[in-house]
Amino acid sequence: MFGNEFYHSTTRKYVAAFGTLFNSIYLTRTSGDGNTTRFRIPINYGPMQKFLAKTQQDPNFTAPAISLPRITFELTSMTYDGTRKLGSLIRNRSAISDSDSDFKSQFSAVPYNLDFTLSIMTKFTEDGTKILEQIIPFFTPDFTPSLQILETPNVTLDVPIILNSVTQEDIYEGSFEERRALIWTLTFQMKGYYLGPVANKKVIKFSESNIHTGLDNTVAEVGVNVQPGLTAEGTPTTSLTETVDYANINYTDDWAYIVDVTDVTVSDDE
Q1: Minimal CA–CA distance to 67: which of 76, 49, 54?
Q2: Which of 82, 105, 181, 210 could form a disulfide with 220 if both were Cys (CB 3.0 to 4.6 A apart)?
Q3: Which CATH number is 177's domain given?
């Protein structure tokens, strides 16, 4: 309908960034004889109920089952956040390396809140508390990583991730053959942004304006021309001998500018 096909993989990047925060959590167990075992907690994307059912699908313990402890997470909802909306005319801009007349432009990002649910499934209570204590101290209640949303134009944003709640549940019902599972559920909200299509725009190298003394006056009284110049530190000048050649003007240049004001007599009807 809108006529612009584009895909920045934004949601995929948010999900990957969220999961990366928890993919290096380790657990150390100490046996009665003093020996220790250290291993990394596996993490998967998907609903907790799916993995919980997998752990309980074989009551006779004859088939391989998912080992505990384990961490799962999923994106549960997305809502628009009008409190973080920027001006609709604000744009992101970046230069094109092989062009001096064009640059890339994109309208400001649209704010959305992404809600995540993280589940910690363990068999023993202390395993769960060990994992939990490696997570919650970093959220006060937010943790803010920097994410590169786009490469061209280069858009890197600080994306707060807020820990909203922590709940615990003991799944220990039914017969003695069923496996026990302790579940800690953590809910998070990520303050993300979504960007629209990237378009190529022309670089404005010169500006020419005619000023009228009134709305009914069809004859311009003053003409104002603005163009890049050779003066230092951005100081405007009226010396037309210091103008810059058109071919030498690039989008990333920091030329100063020349303002030329002249008396003109130009009719709008001409």
Answers
A1: 54
A2: 210
A3: 3.30.2000.40
